[in-house]
Amino acid sequence: MAEEKQQGANPSLEQPSNAKTSWPELVGVTADEAEKKIKEEMPEAQIQVVPPNTPVTYDYRLQRVRLFVDESNKVIQTPTIG
User: Fold this and answer.
1) Which distant-in-sequence residues (6+ apart) come within 8 Å of 14 by Cβ?
2) What would the DSSP string read from start to end of 27-47?
3) Which of 24, 38, 50, 59 could form a disulfide with 78 if both were Cys (CB 3.0 to 4.6 A apart)?
């Protein structure tokens, strides 16, 4: 039985193999538009809008997608899971 627990990774830390992990097509759209599109494809996503010069942590979270935006609230970097 202990052998079974050691085999395979923790499923809560794995991303499904067919799941999308980034949205390069959203660069240049507003944060609201980007959030709507990401939520359509990943309803459980926790979206964080990150204004210019805002510090962020470097921990990795499977449900988090950060939207780095410019002064006009447009996405300036490919949104990715993490």
Assistant:
1) none
2) TTSBHHHHHHHHHHH-TT-EE
3) 24
Listed in sequence order, the residues at least 6 apart from 32 whose beta carbon sits closer than 8 Å to its beta carbon are 73
Output b/e per residue, 18-54; b: 16+ Cβ within 10 A.
Answer: eeeeebeebeebebeebbeebeeebeebebbebeeee
Q: Helix (H, G, I), strand (E, B), or coil: what is residue 60?
A: coil
Indicate the SS3 state at residue 74: strand
Q: Give, for all 82 residues of the chain, the pLDDT tens digit.
A: 444 444 444 444 555 557 899 999 999 999 999 999 999 999 999 999 999 999 999 999 999 999 999 999 999 999 999 9
pTM metric for this prediction: 0.78
List the structure tokens of 59.
């921990």
